[in-house]
Amino acid sequence: MLPELIFGGKNAAQLANVAGNIDVNAGWNAQLDLLEPSSNPEILEAFIEVLLEEIAGKVEAGFPVTVTDLWARSLARHFCNGTTLANFFNPNITHGAGITLSEMISLPNFKQHLIPFPIIVADSLSKFQNNKEIIPGNSAPLTNPIYEFTPFEMGSYDPILAAFTPTKFLGSQNGECTTGFDQLAYIAGASSNIFNTFNISESVLEASPIGPLVAALNEAFPGQEVELDAAAVPNPFLGLERGTFLDSNQTMLTLVDGGSDGEISPLQPMLVKARGIDVIFVIDAPADTIENFTNGSSLISSRERAALFPKSYSFPPIPNSPNTFVSEGLVKRPTFFGCNSRPQTDEPLFIYIANGGAPLGQAPVTNISTMDTALTNSQIAAILEQVNDVATQGIPVHETQKDPEWPVCLACGVVDRAREKLGIPRTGVCAQCLERYCWS
Q1: Within a domain: residue 191?
Q2: What DSSP string describes 385-404?
Q3: Which domain of life is it from (predicted)?
Q4: What number of CA atoms fall less than 13 Å from residue 365's CA on the CB side?
Q5: Which of 221, 317, 320, 394 has fewest C-beta within 10 Å?
């Protein structure tokens, strides 16, 4: 399913030949750069002009537009249905416009629970935030609200807000009903907008990849009183005086990449105690080291934030330092966290799989930079193959052979919490597996 989603094609033979005969009528357009899809200056300038024309209707409707809107329209061309390499620059194609997150609930496969339930996360910035709480290298403090978007609702479980609004009516405010604001590409764009990190000085911003986009926005839509480097979403919680909600009197929420506070893995929604989740697969793949591998920092940030709101979120014991993650090899093999939490706790069990190094003695291909905004089909195929080995290797035998018991050990980890609730002790192979894979 994943190769078909990425490459298109209708049969296994075609999918296997990813560097050759690719069906250009489907799949991702990842070989075109996300920000500069053409090296021809004239084509690139015309492309930006088309993007500006596409978001002009939003301005006419009374909403501000930012770099996120342009980013979203580019993302739509790369990942939404309807755009191919052949029609990528065609201004007469809708390029994913009109595809909303809320309409997902009407899909037959969604109604029958045959497809995953998406929860998209975005961090927030606020003029009232405590900048002293920002972890060095990040742009948002852990104390700011984190928002989640689902096909049903948007809001936050954080006790400083603890409120939601229907996703379908995102953009509504002051009694005026709005629909269509929850464009799927726009929500994805808000969740992946890291561009505020370039806005540290005027010269840095101008020289950054979004410098031309900011200049184009200022020229096309002058006088906007919003931050152009983030997403501007009408605040559905305007006037809500609850707890210590920072933005209760702000007409706009300023949203940025969901990892802007250091939590690269989007764990927050899974940690909500009210959801009662037993087990979480934690895929940890940020570029923490100079080799663009993880060192566990993201998981530590998530633990620190969960500790700020202990009544709302639960978190199992993990190492306190990235040095421990690296020195104990936890970023290069699967690890279970929370195995030995007391039965009466509500902490989920983490099945932690990290991108901390190439598996099985292979040359690394998964350590791409965050700013790699274009990948060939051959690169993607190599990454998928290596990721499959990372996910299926377990604790390698002699570092080059996969653990033949990893599939059953994985199954033991998945059902461990459920068995614990039923009072079923660990025995046999599961006892051996948990002994080997659990971190103490």
Answers
A1: yes
A2: HHHHHHHH--S-BTTTB--T
A3: Eukaryota
A4: 18
A5: 320
